[in-house]
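Fold it.
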Amino acid sequence: MISSEIFSEKHQSRFTIQGRTWNVLDVGSGKPMIFLHNGGGSLWNWAYQIQYFSSKYRVIAPDLPGSGLSYRSTEPLTLEVYLNGVLELLETLNCSKPIVIGNCIGASIGLELALRHPEKVAALLLFNVCGGMPMLNPWLRFVAALRPRTVMGQMLHRRVIDITGNPSLQHLCRRWVYAGEEPPWHPMQSQWIQQQQMDARRWPSIYWLVMGLNSFDVFSGSRQKPSSLPPVLLGWGKQNRTLHMNWAEVVAEWLKPDDLWIIERAGHLPMFEQPQRESE
């Protein structure tokens, strides 16, 4: 491991992407890697991997819209919005042909980038690819699919969804997220959670992600894999209760990855449930 100095403020910058603020950590040198986190997370979800890989690579990790220190949306965050933002970010950073690593919606964004622009991606490492509503477990799908017609109902629906971003209540989601007990966080992840608890403006905004989740449904069925797609590693937490492992077979059937990892003792967040596996 290298010094935690890599996590200092000097390695984080604010960029105007699509007219809105994105917070991005950019550290190390060499072949570029970009890490795209899951919905409701932040760049610190990748803290173990950032620390490990930044000694040999240029590591880029953005806070995706609605998360971390990036902007909070007032409209649905669709796959198209995320994809166009990442494309503009890579151009802004003069980052050519990175290795793309993603989890959940981050994996879907990276995969869509490679499907549309295979020439822009060196390799894909995709974990728990999010295929929108059809992939969610029944309870999450029910809550996400609600579309109340009254103003009061809409306000309540939004409140119920956004309250899941409250760091003080995240332990309530433990069963849906982890394979077992909550794993030890990286110190930077712990620090970020503490900052969120003190400043509600840092809570992730889940509502507008949920409102755009239908746009990710394209990954729940067959897709056309381009012949020029870069090498792909597909990973799935064996105990994933958010996006069940059965969906790994669906995605693998049409994606035909070069390597398939079914990660033991991991749920929806293998990057810090099994960090040693994702740093291989």
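The CA atoms of residues 74 and 87 lie 21 Å apart.
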